[in-house]
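Reopening: Early light-induced protein still failing for me.
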Amino acid sequence: MASSTSAMQSILANPMIRMTTRSRVNQFTIPSVYMPSQRRNSSLRVRSMAEEPKKQPIEPATSASPVTPSAPPPKPRAPKVSTKFSDVMAFGGPAPERINGRLAMIGFAAAMAVEVARGQGVFEQISDGGVPWFLGTSVVLTLASLVPLFQGVSVESKSKGVMTSDAELWNGRLAMLGLIALAFTEYVKGGILV
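Support: Ran it again with your exact input. Result attached.
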């Protein structure tokens, strides 16, 4: 009670807010702020939920017209996937990031395996005959990734369980970062990581 009284006294004592005695009681106005008047909408009607709408009379079914079950609605078709080269290879298309991610996953695993087995860094692997292996793997994996896309198969249609298309994208992104981090670390360190 005391807090509400003190709040009211502070409002009335404030010189910026004054009480007006126009047509409404307890109407406060702030002189520096424009407030448009709001008119009541006379066409607005409120109905009670307790009122029941008027019901249409129900016609009894005759035995002459048998009731036939309606056919089930057709299943919604999956949206048509574009098979144009410009759509598949577009910046936001399904192919570029997936192909780069798949190449990075294979490249990161191969680079780490050769580094552990032979003791060669990434740059030594490239200079020691790794370019033909890289090009061959890139061509085979790119073609294997593009063939289903050009046949109209969407990437999301083959996602089930743990092997989802989102998981593949994130694994590819992490492999790309891992391959760059491996090469950068070996360059700064001047030798192999392991």
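The beta strands are 18-20, 27-29. If you still see a failure, please send the error message rather than a screenshot.
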